[in-house]
Amino acid sequence: MKKVEVSMKRAVVILSGGMDSTTAAYIAKAEGYEIVALHFDYRQRTQERERRAFEAICNALGVAERYVIDLPFFERIGASALTDRNIEVPTGGIEEGVPVTYVPFRNGIFLSIAAAVAEKEGAEALFIGVVEEDSSGYPDCRETFIEAMQRAIDLGTREETHIEIRMPLVHLKKEDIVKTALEYDVPLELTWSCYRNEEEACGVCDSCRLRLKGFEKAGVEDSIPYERGR
After folding, report:
1. What is the mean pLDDT of each successive set of 10 residues along the chain, which is 230 residues long?
2. Rounded distance, CA 101 to CA 88, Å?
């Protein structure tokens, strides 16, 4: 495992409970940050399972300061298969363009709240596990978007506040994320990626397909449970 530096610096980590955000959290820890973990319940289909993953990962990391913030308005907005039960999660393969699982401006809202938490906590960094090159095509996972949010945070916080948004995985392929996770001793068995199920991963939604492809190309077996006959 990477050597952990001794430091009092703090970082807010947006931690969904998925593989990418968890790997970002372990990178933050290895860089010597005291982690303030931030999780959002936004009425997503697998909300309870993601929360369980978040708590388990925080326990593994030894995180004391945890925020779980409820954002019920995402369900009211809808327009995504993750928050609107009338829209089916696609299972036929990874879609071209922006898929129906995109939640409108989700990362913009998450980063805005995270910046408020970071300013309150005196954190100097904000880690987010966005992946641009091998993601599902979400526009709010692009590096240019995160850079724009950085400028907004710089302008919208106190003059003495300096919060750097860190996106250590943004240009990695999924197989490289799996390899990085193993390098940092990330407990991938605690993470959850499925968009549809909370007990056994479906294996056929976009998120499951990307995860399984990453493990396969990395030559590693995924240890989370999947539905039989997928």
Report:
1. 63 98 98 98 98 98 98 97 97 88 97 98 98 84 97 98 98 97 98 97 96 97 86
2. 9
